[in-house]
Amino acid sequence: MELNEAYFDQRAGTYAKLTWHVWYAERLVELAELPPGASVLDAATGTGLAALAAARAVGPSGGVVGVDISSGMLREAEALLAESGLDNVRYQKADVTVLPEFAPESFDVVLCSSSVLYLDAAPALAAWHRVLRPGGTLAYSAMREGFPVAMRVFRECAAEAGVPIPDPMAQLGSERASRDACERAGFRVERIAVDVVRRPPLPGDELWRQAVGNPLHPEVPAAAEARYLARMAELGDDPGICDMPVLFVIARK
Predict the structure, then answer these.
(1) What does the pLDDT look like over 156-211, one tens digit per residue?
(2) What phi and psi, each to the nearest 5 degrees, are found at residue 221?
(3) How far apart, in whole angstroms, are the C-alpha atoms of residue 88 and residue 52?
(4) Which listed site, 8, 46, 81, 220, has its alpha carbon 20 to 30 Å from 160?
(5) What is the pTM of this model?
(6) Which of 58, 131, 133 is nearest to 89 (CA)?
């Protein structure tokens, strides 16, 4: 999937205000079990939620570099960093699927919280493997393939209207897919923890607007809206239509 800087710039102002984003990032860092003094790369750092959690975990003898393609996200990250009082984090604009800015074996840990759905898995994993030291840790979170339900229904309706939209989590959104992709990149998966990010359901028309307004999606015919709203109405008051079952993948180089 092509990285779209304008899309992430647009989201930057509200990203850190969503409590589930904060929990998602902090849970990944907790599971990664970062040792004091470690050097950490936070790939696709966004507003720096995982970077800040990692900086607290590694302590003043460690350090974190957060990288992102979005200037807007990095501005928000710098603001949150200033509020945090931490001095062992820095941010840099970079494409996390390439990372030519960093020498091989530069980091003890690579993190990627909630962002793999926007990335092409193979080059991203290859870039992360290159910058990790031997024995280093890779930790990323991945939404399970086929979720949230509201987006699965949108993709089904789009396909019925002649506009196939791949599930962005097909590459890493199952235990087997993540293990296979990591092994191809030279990693050994140590464990995969599972959990669910609970998100409040939204009305069908609002979910439709969000889906068709996503610039990463191709244009879907307006005629598909009625089909989508009917399908969502069939789900009734299901509280889980926006929930995200997630995998936390911990691997070693």
Answers:
(1) 999 999 999 999 999 999 999 999 999 999 999 999 999 999 988 999 999 999 99
(2) -55, 140
(3) 9
(4) 8
(5) 0.92
(6) 58
